[in-house]
Amino acid sequence: MMRLAGKKIIQLVSNDFEDLELWYPVHRLREEGATVDIVGEKAGEKYIGKYGVPIVSDKTFDEINPADYDAILVPGGWSPDLLRRFDSVLTMVRHFNETKQPIGQICHAGWVLISAGVLKGINVTSTPGIKDDMTNAGATWHDEPVVVDGHIISSRRPPDLPDYMREFIRVLEGSK
Predict the structure, then answer these.
(1) Do residues 38 and 11 make contact, with C-beta atoms less than 8 angstroms apart?
(2) What is the pTM assigned to this prediction?
(3) Residue in 27, 107, 142, 151 annotated catalytic
(4) Which residue in the list 27, 95, 108, 151 is annotated as catalytic?
(5) Is-catalytic flag, 27?
(6) Residue 68: is its pLDDT beyond 80?
(7) Could you give the domains of the chain?
(8) Percent of the chain scored above 90 by pLDDT?
(9) Residue 108 falls in the annotated catalytic set
(10) Rounded to the nearest 10 degrees, what angle do helices 19-31 and 161-174 cross at?
(11) What pLDDT band is residue 176 in, cutting at 50, 70 and 90?
(12) What would the pLDDT profile of 153-172 be if each residue is shown by its tens digit?
């Protein structure tokens, strides 16, 4: 049974993403029947993960309409520091926050949500390295494999990926 047939997800990408934190969610969501578009600064661009695993983007930040999608995923690694510099990325994250549609963040991905200004009063987790950044943005940080606060699903690091995707899929199944 394809639990996510008909669902469309944005997977943001830029260089130096954490390889597993990008690829594992893409594969899991596609296994469940979802369409996952890889969205970067340029379309057809090869982006390289921290450990050398490449991925090619399908679309650009500016050419997609977030209203055409059901959820967004922000990868970890060092790419969130690059992604948060694009107004179009912050606008996308704000769209999903305002519409209460699933936003997945893992590891350093919280940096993008911080820059989008959507974490005040939210329960989250992340890599412990950005705990202070998350709390300074108004979030309540928890050292747990996955934290779900409404439509925001957060996780710490690669070993937590099974918990992260189980909860992300559960929230996505229940979304409009």
Answers:
(1) yes
(2) 0.97
(3) 107
(4) 108
(5) no
(6) yes
(7) 8-174 (3.40.50.880)
(8) 98
(9) yes
(10) 40
(11) low
(12) 999 999 999 999 999 999 99
